[in-house]
Amino acid sequence: MQALLPTRSTLPLFDVAASRRIEARALAHSPDLMERAGLAVAKLALALRRGEGPIWIACGPGNNGGDGRVAARRLSEIGLPVHVGHTAPPQPSLVIDALLGLGLNRPPDAALQTTIAAMQTCGATILAVDLPSGLLADTGQAAGGAAVRADHTLALLTLKPGLFTGEGRGYGGQLWFDDLGITPDEVASADLLGPSPLPQRNPTSHKGSHGQVLIVGGAPGMQGAARLAARAALACGAGRVYVDLLGLPATEPADPGQPELMRGRLADLPQAVGVVGCGAGPTIADALPALLREAPKLVIDADALNAIAADDELQTLVRARTAGSTLLTPHPLEAARLLGCDTSAVQADRLAAASELARRLACTVVLKGSGSIIASPGERPAICASGGPALATAGSGDVLAGWLGGLWAQQPGASGHAIACAGVDAHGRAGEAGGVLRAGDLIERLAARR
Ligand SMILES: NC(=O)C1=CN([C@@H]2O[C@H](COP(=O)(O)OP(=O)(O)OC[C@H]3O[C@@H](n4cnc5c(N)ncnc54)[C@H](OP(=O)(O)O)[C@@H]3O)[C@@H](O)[C@H]2O)[C@@H](O)CC1
Ligand SMILES: Nc1ncnc2c1ncn2[C@@H]1O[C@H](COP(=O)(O)OP(=O)(O)O)[C@@H](O)[C@H]1O
């Protein structure tokens, strides 16, 4: 058993169907799986229990409840007070939520909701078995809006995508994992991202060795967004970073606070990685056809995404680009505009939404938000479990776009998918902080990890 986050390497995630197949094959040669699962739950419960009161174990009708009952037996065997039932005992020292796991197939009914509410209000730490009851394993949504908000979740046998995206991280608490001694014999449904190495700098390299980035955005009044992206690309290590500030005369400095940045235009920088759309306003639509036709690599964000969503011809140009050369970074609302649906439909199944957008536009998609998804045609989707609410502030997405451009400039042979996985994970890890991170501070934290 191990605490899972932050991840030290990329880990396989298995959806319900794949987990079921793994479970069925494992049971054929290891029929004691539930014993192992219950023992793992009991061990973690011992570590989490606070006080002398009974451990309350709420068991459901299926095997999730079976795990809970094994844990109850194990804990009783060592002399601990255990209360198995759907109502709270006085002053429980821990709650074990073993109501529903992988088999959740409808919103919890009224009786289950009453038990869930009692768990939530009894004041004890909650340990969920495999999944918080009510949380959908594939999507990270609460079925019908009701799910246990656990303090800890012990995932068993497989890691399920829903623990890491959508609302999953809000419901799961601290995550633990026990594979029950089984090596999965299935292709993963998705990857849980681990850290990627940053580009190495050869001792004999010069600025020309580290590529160029051209930021296009920053309409009057919104230059900050383009400048944040440019500063992030510079901090990432790009050799030269240029800014095309829309509507500002070319004689104006790129960024008075960052003299390393230069003004530049697509026509003069045919090799530069384009980062397009940060603070760009609607006029970015005029610049997009040339960028989409000519820029060898593009990171497309914010207003550029909205312009593409509103224009079929721009969408055709996106699809026509060389495979692996285009990376879109929508937040859920921008993704919804691109897909022609509403935000709740995107959030209901983030993996499916990102994959569908990647398929439709034939490019890499980073669907941002808690548990960012990276999806590309022909690639297994990835989920980023790093990052947190300190990133929920204006400008952190601009920093991500610039960082991705900076990475790509230094690794021109890498696909959009590889760059997105590396950059999104680094951005998330740098964004793990208490309180709120100003975007400028986020850049410093990213740079410090180089
Ligand atoms: N097999 C093994 O050895 C291992 C199993 N493992 C463990 O098993 C868990 C999966 O067990 P599972 O497949 O039995 O599903 P589970 O989550 O207990 O629920 C199914 C039951 O709940 C019911 N139900 C569903 N939704 C409901 C609702 N909203 N409200 C009310 N009832 C609802 C559903 O009822 P029905 O649809 O039949 O009416 C059915 O009776 C997995 O998460 C892990 O903990 C692992 O430890 C590995 C070893
Ligand atoms: N709660 C959260 N957990 C993890 N990452 C988050 C969270 N909130 C925001 N982020 C990340 O912060 C960034 C915000 O981007 P975006 O919404 O485009 O902001 P902006 O346009 O203001 O820069 C994204 O990378 C997103 O994934």
UniProtKB/TrEMBL annotation:
Its cofactor is Mg(2+); K(+). Pfam families: Carb_kinase, YjeF_N. Residues 190-450 form the YjeF C-terminal domain. AMP binds at K368, G369, S370, G371, S372, G397. InterPro entries: Carbohydrate_kinase_pred_CS, CARKD, Nnr, Ribokinase-like, YjeF_N_dom, YjeF_N_dom_sf. Residues 19-188 form the YjeF N-terminal domain. HAMAP family: NADHX_dehydratase, NADHX_epimerase. Homotetramer. Bifunctional enzyme that catalyzes the epimerization of the S- and R-forms of NAD(P)HX and the dehydration of the S-form of NAD(P)HX at the expense of ADP, which is converted to AMP. This allows the repair of both epimers of NAD(P)HX, a damaged form of NAD(P)H that is a result of enzymatic or heat-dependent hydration. Catalyzes the dehydration of the S-form of NAD(P)HX at the expense of ADP, which is converted to AMP. Together with NAD(P)HX epimerase, which catalyzes the epimerization of the S- and R-forms, the enzyme allows the repair of both epimers of NAD(P)HX, a damaged form of NAD(P)H that is a result of enzymatic or heat-dependent hydration. In the N-terminal section; belongs to the NnrE/AIBP family. Belongs to the NnrD/CARKD family. This is Bifunctional NAD(P)H-hydrate repair enzyme. It comes from Pelomonas nitida. The gene is nnrD.
